[in-house]
Amino acid sequence: MLKPSTGVPQAYDSGIAMINKLPNKNVFFTACSDYCVHTGDVAGHWTTVYNTIDFSRYNLNQQIDPQQAPLMFLGRLDKIKGVHTAIKVAKATNNNLIIAGNISHTRDNLSYFKNEIEPLIDGKQIKYIGPLNDTEKNEYLQQAKGLLFPIEWEEPFGMVMIEAMACGTPVIAFKRGSVPEVINEGVTGFVVTNEREMIEQVANLKNIDRKTCRDMAESRFNLNKIAREYITLVAD
């Protein structure tokens, strides 16, 4: 169960509080973003260590057609992930949209998909291709002009953002949760506050150098860097 104000599981909250009552004070905690650290509202010493991916499993593609390449949405098809907004943005900008991800089977989100999303999937401009494994993510993300990330909740990190960046594909995302930490504005994507701004920034995706996008993301989120951060915590 999540605490409504923070997104922190209540069981974690009570468990951490119990650990901090013990006499040994050498326990520390990590979270995957500054947002999580600052809003966790739990006791103890916390440090941000970002999530990571194996960049060697994702291929940079610099040769996309800025006119014909599709936009992409990748994530669970829950309402809070905002696929309905991604569809609106694609239609408003006259772009094709590839939707990939799991259909939730909770009653509210299944109803959301059946009533609000499925009727808009025409197999032409708006395509749903189902859930993807890592190999398939690499294949589809590198062909996209941009990843849309119009979340309606406070995202703790957002792995799909760095998976896209690893292919050189920039991200346009709503300013929620960790998004401003993950995206380097104008380098790996754009941070926006609403649907109108997202629509406006689609035209600017062509201005982002895809190699620089990947290089920046790799410098910040590669496996070796994140591993060293964990080792440093233990060594200190």
Q: What does it look like?
A:
By secondary structure, the chain is of the alpha/beta class. The protein is built from 10 helices and 8 strands. Strand 1, helix 2 and strand 2 form a beta-alpha-beta unit. It starts with 9 loop residues before the first helix and ends with a helix. Residues about 1-10 have low confidence and may be disordered.
Brief write-up:
With 236 residues, this protein is α/β, with parallel strands linked by helices.
- Helices and strands, in order, run as HEHEEHEHEHEHEHEHHH
Give the beta-strand count: 8
Count up the helices. Answer: 10
CATH superfamily of the largest domain, please? Glycogen Phosphorylase B
Broad structural category? alpha/beta
Biggest sheet, open or closed, and with what strands and sense? Answer: 6 strands, parallel
Fill in the CATH topology of the largest domain: Rossmann fold
> Gyration radius, to the nearest Å?
19 Å
The outline comes out as: globular
Strand content: 5-15%
Low-confidence stretches: 1-11
Spatial ordering of strands, largest sheet: 5-4-3-6-7-8
